[in-house]
Amino acid sequence: MSPAPLPNELPRQSLARTRFDPFVGVVPARQPLPVAPPVVASPPVVAPAPQPTAPALNYRYLGRLVDPTGKASVYLAKGAKEISVEVGTQLDEGYVVEAIGADAIRLHYPPLDTRALITIPPGKE
Asked: What's the whole-model pTM score?
Protein backbone atom coordinates (compact mmCIF):
# COMPACT_ATOMS: atom_id res chain seq x y z
CA MET A 1 0.00 0.00 0.00
CA SER A 2 1.13 3.34 -0.75
CA PRO A 3 0.99 6.12 1.70
CA ALA A 4 -1.94 8.51 1.48
CA PRO A 5 -1.16 11.74 -0.18
CA LEU A 6 -0.57 14.64 2.17
CA PRO A 7 -3.13 17.43 2.16
CA ASN A 8 -2.07 20.85 0.92
CA GLU A 9 -3.25 22.45 4.15
CA LEU A 10 -3.81 21.03 7.60
CA PRO A 11 -7.09 21.76 9.33
CA ARG A 12 -6.79 24.62 11.82
CA GLN A 13 -7.51 23.74 15.36
CA SER A 14 -8.27 26.37 17.94
CA LEU A 15 -6.31 26.00 21.08
CA ALA A 16 -7.61 27.33 24.33
CA ARG A 17 -5.37 29.78 26.08
CA THR A 18 -3.69 28.23 28.99
CA ARG A 19 -3.21 29.87 32.36
CA PHE A 20 -0.21 27.81 33.17
CA ASP A 21 3.16 29.48 33.03
CA PRO A 22 5.87 26.84 32.97
CA PHE A 23 8.33 29.35 34.44
CA VAL A 24 6.18 30.12 37.47
CA GLY A 25 4.75 26.76 38.30
CA VAL A 26 1.35 25.87 39.60
CA VAL A 27 -0.39 28.81 41.26
CA PRO A 28 -3.33 27.98 43.51
CA ALA A 29 -6.63 29.58 42.62
CA ARG A 30 -7.23 32.86 44.36
CA GLN A 31 -9.96 33.03 46.89
CA PRO A 32 -12.01 36.24 46.90
CA LEU A 33 -11.21 38.46 49.85
CA PRO A 34 -14.00 38.75 52.39
CA VAL A 35 -15.75 42.07 52.12
CA ALA A 36 -15.97 43.82 55.46
CA PRO A 37 -18.92 46.08 56.11
CA PRO A 38 -18.05 49.72 55.54
CA VAL A 39 -16.66 51.48 58.59
CA VAL A 40 -18.52 54.65 59.37
CA ALA A 41 -16.24 57.01 61.23
CA SER A 42 -17.92 58.80 64.06
CA PRO A 43 -17.26 62.51 64.22
CA PRO A 44 -14.34 63.38 66.49
CA VAL A 45 -15.20 64.46 69.98
CA VAL A 46 -14.06 68.03 70.36
CA ALA A 47 -13.86 69.41 73.86
CA PRO A 48 -15.20 72.92 74.15
CA ALA A 49 -12.52 75.57 74.23
CA PRO A 50 -11.81 76.79 77.74
CA GLN A 51 -13.26 80.15 78.58
CA PRO A 52 -10.63 82.88 78.45
CA THR A 53 -9.60 84.24 81.82
CA ALA A 54 -7.85 87.36 82.91
CA PRO A 55 -4.16 86.99 83.78
CA ALA A 56 -3.18 86.32 87.37
CA LEU A 57 -3.12 89.42 89.51
CA ASN A 58 0.28 89.37 91.20
CA TYR A 59 0.11 92.85 92.73
CA ARG A 60 -0.31 93.69 96.40
CA TYR A 61 -0.95 96.95 98.16
CA LEU A 62 2.28 98.50 99.38
CA GLY A 63 1.21 101.85 100.79
CA ARG A 64 0.02 105.39 100.30
CA LEU A 65 2.08 108.58 100.51
CA VAL A 66 0.67 112.09 100.80
CA ASP A 67 3.04 114.84 99.69
CA PRO A 68 3.12 118.35 101.27
CA THR A 69 0.70 119.65 98.64
CA GLY A 70 -1.89 117.06 99.69
CA LYS A 71 -1.57 114.84 96.62
CA ALA A 72 -1.81 111.17 97.54
CA SER A 73 0.26 108.56 95.73
CA VAL A 74 -0.66 104.88 95.99
CA TYR A 75 2.01 102.21 95.62
CA LEU A 76 1.64 98.61 94.55
CA ALA A 77 4.28 95.88 94.64
CA LYS A 78 4.81 92.99 92.28
CA GLY A 79 7.58 90.83 93.64
CA ALA A 80 10.44 93.26 94.37
CA LYS A 81 9.14 95.85 91.89
CA GLU A 82 7.30 98.89 93.28
CA ILE A 83 5.09 101.11 91.14
CA SER A 84 3.09 104.24 91.81
CA VAL A 85 -0.46 104.06 90.46
CA GLU A 86 -3.33 106.44 89.96
CA VAL A 87 -6.70 106.14 88.23
CA GLY A 88 -6.01 105.29 84.57
CA THR A 89 -2.60 103.63 85.11
CA GLN A 90 -2.21 100.53 82.96
CA LEU A 91 -0.36 97.64 84.59
CA ASP A 92 1.91 95.19 82.73
CA GLU A 93 -0.74 92.44 82.39
CA GLY A 94 -3.26 94.81 80.80
CA TYR A 95 -5.20 95.74 83.93
CA VAL A 96 -6.17 99.41 84.24
CA VAL A 97 -6.61 101.12 87.63
CA GLU A 98 -10.28 102.06 87.62
CA ALA A 99 -10.74 103.44 91.15
CA ILE A 100 -8.79 103.89 94.36
CA GLY A 101 -10.85 103.74 97.53
CA ALA A 102 -10.16 103.64 101.23
CA ASP A 103 -10.48 99.85 101.44
CA ALA A 104 -9.63 98.60 97.91
CA ILE A 105 -8.14 99.41 94.52
CA ARG A 106 -10.45 98.37 91.68
CA LEU A 107 -8.81 97.16 88.48
CA HIS A 108 -10.45 96.61 85.09
CA TYR A 109 -9.27 94.09 82.47
CA PRO A 110 -10.69 95.53 79.20
CA PRO A 111 -10.19 92.53 76.86
CA LEU A 112 -12.65 90.45 78.90
CA ASP A 113 -14.45 93.33 80.62
CA THR A 114 -13.73 91.84 84.05
CA ARG A 115 -12.80 93.54 87.28
CA ALA A 116 -10.52 92.64 90.18
CA LEU A 117 -9.85 94.12 93.58
CA ILE A 118 -6.67 94.64 95.52
CA THR A 119 -7.76 95.05 99.11
CA ILE A 120 -6.14 97.59 101.37
CA PRO A 121 -5.59 96.04 104.82
CA PRO A 122 -7.25 97.92 107.68
CA GLY A 123 -4.93 100.26 109.52
CA LYS A 124 -2.71 100.76 106.46
CA GLU A 125 -4.47 103.96 105.49
From this structure: 0.58
